[in-house]
Design brief:
- By secondary structure, this protein is of the alpha+beta class.
- The protein has a single domain (about 1-115), classed as Jelly Rolls (Sandwich), CATH 2.60.120.
- About 25% of the residues lie in helices and about 45% in strands.
- The protein has helices spanning about 1-20, 20-25, 115-125, and strands at about 30-35, 40-45, 55, 60-65, 70-75, 80-85, 90, 95-100, 105-115.
- A 5-stranded antiparallel β-sheet has the order 1-2-9-4-7.
Length: about 120
Amino acid sequence: MLRITTLLALALLARAALAQDPVATDGDKYKVLLENDQVRVLAYTDRPGERTHEHRHPAFVVVALAPFKRRLVLADGRTLVREFKAGEVIYSPGETHVGENIGTTSTQVIMIELKQARAAAAGSK
């Protein structure tokens, strides 16, 4: 009985983790361009007024392909407004958020998510 309960709990945790993957929650906006054991490269596009569902990114780098403005509501309730110029690049240590395009232009970015397990292993050498 304990084994079945443990397996059920693990299955529910795996489902919850999948639900927070941005490709799963907002597949109409995110497209996987490349994925390997070190990085996942995503293309993201939305239109003014569009929102994402809550999702999680590990540490990542974003390259803005065009100017845009968006609001992020973080998991702890804090709100950030970010405005990007074309070609601007930022790094984030990772976060859970809901994003909303509050500007007048489409959001167009390339996002490079860093695989944490691989990064940690490389840092310990």
